[in-house]
Amino acid sequence: MNADEYTKMFELEDHYWWFVGRRDLALRLFDKYRVNVGRPMLDVGCGTGVVLRELEARGKPVGLDMSPLALGYCGKRGLSRLVRGDGTKLPLRSQTVGGIIGLDIFEHIEDDEAAFAEAFRVLAPGQILVMSVPAFMSLWGPHDVALHHFRRYRRNELRRKLERAGFEVQRVTYSVFFLFPIVVLWRILEKRKPGPAKASLVAVPGWANRLLIGLQRLESALLQRLDLPWGSSVVAVARKPEVS
After folding, report:
1. In what order do the strands lie in the sheet containing 168-175?
2. Taking the chain (244 residues) in consecutive chunks of 10 residues, what is each chunk's mean pLDDT?
3. Pick from 18, 39, 55, 164: most CB atoms within 10 A?
4. CA angle 234-123-62, nearest 5°?
5. How is the chain split into domains, by residue range?
6. Domain 3-239's class?
């Protein structure tokens, strides 16, 4: 990502509705599906460290990111178990990790299937990968360009890639369901704007931000029970088989 996007993330990640909703859903799924075996957890593409900080309440997580700027922001949050590395060449021994979270990172990796294979390699048998990626190439626009994405995904495409890596897919569903029509309209308008590409994190007043967080938490509760047919993100839970 561009350097100013990391700064924006650091300033917004604690409280902005999109980050809060994404984090809440991922951690709920992580807690529901993960088998706690006391092994270290991994946050792939840890960014500025808010999810990594949440994982500290669950054990001893390690944060990995390619960006020294991102890792520097993690340090500002008091996080110390940090590794600079590439998602396609994880600097970890095979079958040693007790759960991986990768939120909106695999779309940044040109060879995403190599990254899925690496996640599979380092996971201990029976452990899970919880991940999110942006949905639908039809929504591709300046937001994706500014964030250096390579692709957006469909649900079945993601399932196939995870299965090819060896995973048993426990869940794969769309998210940001209720707000999807607004996202579609916004992306259409974005494509018509002149000027350099920018990430679309629209400023909202405090009351609206709280309302949107509540809406995303309602969606998160629904997603504990059922899959949703559309949305601007795809969320998956994939498990490494006990015998691989």
Report:
1. 82-84, 61-65, 41-44, 100-103, 128-134, 233-239, 168-175
2. 78 94 97 88 96 93 95 94 95 96 97 98 97 96 90 98 98 96 90 73 90 96 94 98 79
3. 55
4. 85
5. 3-239
6. alpha beta
